[in-house]
Amino acid sequence: MTTNVDPEKTAKDSPIEIHLSAGAAGGDAGRASADREGAGAPQEPHLGPPIFRLQDMGVWYGDHHAVKGVSMDIPRNAITALIGPSGCGKSTALRCLNRMNDLIPGARVEGRVLFGDEDLLSGDVDPVDLRGRIGMVFQKPNPFPKSIKDNLEFGMKVNGIKPTAERVEQALVDAALWDEVKDRLKAEAFSLSGGQQQRLCIARAIAVEPEVILMDEPCSALDPIATLAIEDLMKKLAERYTLVVVTHNMQQAARISDQVAFMTVEGTAEGDRTGVLAEVGTARQIFSAPKDPRTEAYITGRVG
Amino acid sequence: MSTLETPSPPPPPSATATVRPLAKKRARPSEQLFKWLVVGLTAITMAMLIWLITSVLIRGAGSISWSFLTDKPSSNPAKAGFNSALRGSVVLMMVTIFFAWPIGVAAALYLEKFAAQSATLTERRLRERLTTGRVSGLGAGWVHARLWWLRIRPRVVHLIDVNISNLAAVPSIIYGLLGLAIFVGVMGISKSLLAGGLTLAVLILPIIIIAAREALRAVPISIEQGAMALGATRWQAVRSQVFPAALPGILTGTILAMSRAIGETAPLIVVGGVVFSTAVPSLNPLEAGNEALLAMPLQIYFWTDQPQASFQAIAAAGIIVLLATLLVMNLVAIILRNRYSKRW
Question: Which of A106, A107, A204 minimises the CB distance to B230?
C-alpha cells in the first residue's frame, strides 16, 4: 500500500488508507476516520471489518498485464461493487478471489489476497476447497442441463453436504425462487426464465454454504424486472454473506452497494492496456464526491 | 422530386412528398443462373443415389425373404442365405464397439478436458518444491521430469491432434495390414471375428475420438466453470456435468463410426475374412476368437464374384440388407441427436 510512490496514484490511494485504518481499528475508529475524512462527505456509513485484503494484486495473461496494483479491503457482510468501463479488468480481478483464473491457461496472479489472515493465492491453498467457501455467480445464467433439484444437489455433494430436501428448500427460499418452483423441482432447469435461472444459480451457490458470493455482472443478461428481483435478493443476502459484485451499471452499483471500487484502463509504456484500481470508497462517497478525476468523468458520463 | 415533374395534380401533403418511389421487382439473371446451377448439381447427386438404390432393389427384391435372412450360405444360389454374414457382422460390431468406445472416449476426455488445461499452478508448485530443497536425488529427478513434461505437453498434444485427423484419413486396407501384423502376427489371435473386430476398432478409433471431442467441445465452458466454482474438482465437473451433457453427441458420433465399420470390406479380407463358409457363427461375443471371420460385405463380395446370374441377385439382396442396416443405424443417430441434443 504505502510503498506506492507513483505521484499520480497518491490521490486515489487515500480513500483506501482511510478504509484500511477503519477496518484495522474496528467499529468506532471507523466512524472516527470517516469524520476525519471531511471533504464534504457527510456521515459515511460504517463498513465492517474486512474479509478480503487485496495487496498489490495483479493478473497476467501470458505477456499481457491485464490488471495491476489492486490494493483494497472488502468488508464482511456488505456489498462491494466493482465498476468501470469495459475491458478494465473488473471480472478478471473478481476471478482472483476464488482462484478461477487458475483455470485459464497462461493466466498468472501476482500480489497477495488475504482471506482472513491467509494469502489465498498461496501455492499450498487448495483451490477446490476454496471455491466451496467462495461461491460465484456468472454473467450468463449457467444452470446445469438437469433438473432444478439436481442443480442444487450437485454442489452439496461435491462439498460433502448431505443433500436433504430441507436444504434444497432452504436454498431456494433464500434465493427467492421457492414459491415459483416448489411444485416442479424435477423440471429441467432450462425450462425456467432467464431471471429464474439466475436465481437458481444463486440458490446453487448458497446451497454449499459459502462465506462469500462473487457475482460477475449477474444482471447483464436479464430484463429490468428480473434485475430488480436479483438486486432485492442481493441486499437480503448481504445480511449473511459478503458479496462482491461486478457491474457496468452504475445505477445498480448505487442502488445496492456499500462500497464501490472504480477500475479503469491505463496505457503502459510498452503499449499494453492494463486495468488499474482508480478509487475505492463508500458508495455515497464515490457517487457524490469522487476524489479521482477519472472516477468523476466516468460516473458523470463523460467517459465510458 | 416526382411532384416537381408532374405539376398538374395538387402537390400531396409534404410528409409523403419527400419519399422516393419504391423500386419495382426486377429480374436478376445471374441470381437465377446460380440457383439453377446448384439445384442441378444437387439433382445429379440425388439421381446417382436413387439410381443405385433402385437398381439394387430391382435386382435383389425378389430374393429377399425370411429364409434368406435365416439360411446359411450354400453353393446353390437358390438355397443360399445371409444368416452367417448377418451374425458375423453383429458380433463384429459388438467386438469393435467394446474396444473402440471406451478407448476413444477416454482419449477424447483427456485431450479435450485435461491435456489442454492450465499447468501454471502445477509448475509453480513443482518449482517451489525444488527451491525449498524438500526433495533431493531421485525425487528431484522426478520433479525435473514432470516439469519437462509440462513444458513439452502442449507440443505433444498438438502432435497427437494432427495425427488423429491424419489417422482418420488413412485408407482402410492399411488398417487391415496393421491388424494382420499386430493382432494375428504379434498377439497370435486366430483369423477370427475377434481379430476382425479389433481391426475395425482401430479403424474407427480416430473417428470416435474426433466425434467425442466435438461433442465435448459443444458443451459450453460455462457449465464446467459453474461446477468448478461450486467447489467441484475438474474430474467431478467433467464426470457429472460435461460428460452427461455431451453423451448424446458422443453416441451419435459412435453410431456413425459404426456404420462406417459395418460396411468395411478390404481390411477384413486382409485380416483373413472368410468368403465362403457353411459355419453359423455364435452370437456370443466371447466366442468371437473361435469364429470364422464372416461379415455382410464379405459375403456380398463373394457372391458378386460368382459367374452365375442367380448369385448376382442374392448379392443385390445382401446389399439391400446391408443398406437397410445402415439406414436404421443412421436413423437412430439422427433421433438421438434431435431428441437429446441441447440448445445452449
Answer: A204
Measured N-to-C along each axis, helices A165-174 and A194-207 cross at an angle, to the nearest 10 degrees, of 120
pLDDT for residue B13: 59
Q: Detail the DSSP E strand segments found in chain B.
A: none
Average pLDDT over residues B2-23: 65
3-state SS assignment for residue B31? helix
What is the rounded average pLDDT of the residues B301-325?
89
Which one-letter amino acid corresponds to residue B57? L
Q: Which residues of B touch A131 (CB under 8 A)?
A: 228-231
Cell of B171: 485408407
pLDDT for B271-281, tens place per residue? 887 767 777 88
Q: Round to whole Å and give the CA distance between A252 and A83.
A: 10
Q: How far is A145 from chain B (nearest CA, A)?
A: 7
Structural domains of chain B in order of their starting residue, each with its CATH number: 67-340 (1.10.3720.10)
Q: Secondary structure of chain A in the HEC alphabet? A: CCCCCCHHHHHHHHHHHHHHHHHHHCHHHHHHHHHHHCCCCCCCCCCCCEEEEEEEEEEEECCEEEEEEEEEEEECCCEEEEECCCCCCHHHHHHHCCCHHHHCCCEEEEEEEEECCEECCCCCCCHHHHHHHEEEECCCCCCCCCEHHHHHHHHHHHCCCCCCHHHHHHHHHHCCCHHHHCCCCCCEHHHCCHHHHHHHHHHHHHHCCCCEEEEECCCCCCCHHHHHHHHHHHHHHCCCCEEEEECCCHHHHHHHCCEEEEEEEEECCCCCEEEEEEEEEEHHHHHHCCCCHHHHHHHCCCCC
Among chain B residues, CA nearest to A95: B229
ipTM topping 0.85: no
Collect all residues from A whose CB is shorter than 8 A from any CB in B: 98, 100, 102-108, 123, 127-133, 135-136, 138, 140, 142-146, 154-155, 158-159, 190, 201, 204-205, 208
pLDDT in tens, B253-268: 999 999 999 999 999 9
Which pLDDT score is estimated for B14?
60
CB atoms B220 and A104 under 8 Å: no
Give per-residue pLDDT as tens, B43-78. Answer: 999 999 999 999 999 988 888 888 888 888 777 777
Domains in chain A, start-ordered, CATH in brackets? 7-299 (3.40.50.300)
What pLDDT score does B5 carry?
55
* Dist CA A8 CA A11 (whole Å): 7
Low-confidence ranges of chain A (pLDDT < 70): 1-46, 302-304
Which residue's entry shows cell 478436458?
B113
**pLDDT for position B17:** 67
CA of A147: which chain B residue's CA is closest?
Answer: B241
**Side-chain half-sphere of B231: how many Cα atoms within 13 Å?**
28
Pairing, β A242-246 against β A79-83: parallel
In chain A, the percentage of residues whose pLDDT exceeds 90 is: 66
Percent of chain A, pLDDT > 70? 84
B87, pLDDT greater than 50: yes
Give the CA angle between residues A87, A89, A94 to the nearest 5°.
140
